[in-house]
Design goal:
alpha/beta; cell cycle; Cell division protein FtsJ; cell division; cREC_REC
C-alpha cells in the first residue's frame, strides 16, 4: 500500500489518503506500507508531520520509501533529520516530494 498524509492536498492516484496524524499512524500499524509521503502542517492545533515521524522512528514503523512533500522548509527538514537518523538499513528517506518520473512508476505499479 502507498500512503499519502495531507490535510488539504488531493491524494495522488494509487495512494491511500490519511487526512491526519492519527489516521496515518493507524494505517502504518495495520497495513504494510511500502511508500509514504508526509506533509508537515496538518491544521491548527493538530499534531504535525514531525509527530508522525517521531512515532515512526520510535516504533520502527518505517516503510521502504518515505517522501516529504511539505511546503514548510523547516518542517520538512525536521522530519527528514528525525527519520534519517533512526532509519533501518534498506529504507530510503527523500527530503522532498515524489518526482514526476517516480510518481508515474508508482501509478504503474499500483495498477498491477
Amino acid at each position: 500500500m502507498y500512503l499519502f498524509m495531507d490535510d488539504y492536498r488531493p491524494c495522488p492516484p494509487g495512494f491511500k489518503l490519511a487526512r491526519d496524524a492519527d489516521e496515518c499512524l493507524l494505517l502504518l500499524h495495520e497495513y504494510p506500507i511500502s511508500i509514504l509521503s508526509l506533509d508537515y502542517d496538518l491544521g491548527p492545533g493538530q499534531p504535525t508531520g514531525k509527530d508522525v515521524a517521531a512515532a515512526i522512528a520510535s516504533k520502527q514503523l518505517y516503510p521502504r520509501e518515505i517522501y516529504l512533500h511539505s511546503s514548510s522548509p523547516q518542517g520538512r527538514q525536521a522530519m527528514y533529520e528525525l527519520l534519517y537518523a533512526n532509519k533501518p538499513e534498506g529504507v530510503t528517506v527523500h527530503n522532498g516530494p515524489i518526482p514526476e518520473a517516480r510518481m508515474q512508476e508508482i501509478i504503474s505499479e499500483s495498477k498491477r
